[in-house]
What does this fold into?
Amino acid sequence: MLQSSKLHSYAHAIKAVDSTRRVITPQSSTLGLTLESAMQTCDALHMLNTADGFDSVGRKVIAESTSRRALDNPQACLGHHYASRTVYLQDDEIILSTQNSTRLFLEPKLVLRFSQTPDSATSLEQFTQMFESVALGIEILKAPFKGDAWSFEDKVCSNGMGIMLVIGEAKTLSEKRKRNFSNVVSHATFSLNRVSKLSSQLLNFASGRDSVMSSISDLYEIFQRQWQIDGCSPFHQNDLISLNALCAPVKISAGDEYVCVASGIDLESVRIRLTQ
It folds into this structure.
């Protein structure tokens, strides 16, 4: 009971960062949190968000690493995306204000949409056929913690630190594209660039095959594990599902403009401009 109380207190502290605009000390190490207890804290934060009127529109993969080469068996779990924090790209560009925000990061991601709800008997092949569309997206993260000593468990506790998901133009997946989706992603490349009227600076470049938890088969494993924990499906019809970051997150600041580009996969780029 005491441990549960501490987890809820940590969730309340993370939640309060939005209103107080003050960073907090990361507590996962002090509390001795495991991935399981960090997920419980994330669930507590989700309940607080739900009580505040946040509507979940889907789930996000929160993984320990963005690179398969970094860890042999990276841990991963699911967070939530909310309607009020989801933006659909229009006119090829999104302009966002960073007023009163510091320690912001960008993570490029693939965003899928479910056409129906999977259940415990759903096979990988059936699971693959349940996706109706895919889009390139950028999630904006905000570190609510002091310093840089926060851990993966702290990131899980804070719902992956996400404050907004920007989604590009969605492309419908044909039956053939669904079957070949993971293979296409594996052979695709993704770049994140800082751009201006005069130049473009490459910040990150990654191959789909090197990104952890970036295929439907990876997502299926997480789905099965989450089902065993919850006893019900974590995914539902029309849910948005973002896979893990395609490359390492990039720290951003006001005045910067970024574009995420995919090659080898038919997806429109995503461009955002940040203002003070």
User: Anything to note?
Assistant: The chain has one domain: 2-275. The domain at 2-275 is CATH 3.90.850.10 (Fumarylacetoacetate hydrolase; domain 2). The two ends are 44 Å apart (CA to CA).
